[in-house]
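# step 3/5: fold
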Amino acid sequence: MEKAKGTTTLLVAAACLLYALSGGIRAIYGIIIGPLTQWTGIDYASASFAFGVAQLFYGLTQPVWGCSCSCCRRRCCF
């Protein structure tokens, strides 16, 4: 029973860390856009467009990655 509890705790901690990292990467765009435009010399609109395309791509590919993970577990969603 103790081994199962330890494994569950480790799994939950790893999932929380992964979620925090992925959420932080997607949420940092607003913080870095000012310094990025000053440092690279690109205009604000171009940087915003690039970030918007990245967010759109991230959102559109989520079902694909979810289905591919399901296929690895022999429960394909297609």
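# step 4/5: annotate
The chain has a mean pLDDT of 80.
# step 5/5: archive (pending)
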